[in-house]
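Entry for the shared binder. Reason: the reviewer on the internal report wants the predicted structure included alongside the sequence.
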Amino acid sequence: MKKLILCAMSMLAIFALVACDPTPEEGANDKQKDSTKVVNEGTAKHQDVKLTKNVGETEMTVDHIKQKIIKKKKHLELQFSLTNHSSTDKGFGANDFRIEADDSETYRIDGTKVNFGDVIAPHKTLTGSAYFVIPEKIKSINVVYQPEEKMEAAWKIDLE
């Protein structure tokens, strides 16, 4: 009985930690702005980009990029806001995104991190982060949204 209670408490603690999302929601008025602002914070660089694309009835925005250099690799955190303007639920996940870098290589999400993914109810917004690891020398990337065989959106971003 004690093992069952201990197991239940452990699972509850895990779910509580996973449910906490540190990403703040952005105001709806700022979504159509295309801007770039870079802030250095110790070993991390923060870059506000606010780049929006419409795919079908979904508005997708790359809001912010956080860069950290670890062992000659750039660890990128791309923060997204996805708004479902349709009348049905839509599912989205970080696995539908990839990076095509200026070194002609393609990079997939870093599966060791907790990347976003969920179903978005009609007229609701999902915010979350996708994580990538790329070589330190990369200065320009294309963030590509391709849920199936056809590329549906791409954002060209210069990394600062």
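Summary line for the report: The domain at 31-158 is CATH 2.60.40.1240 (Immunoglobulin-like).
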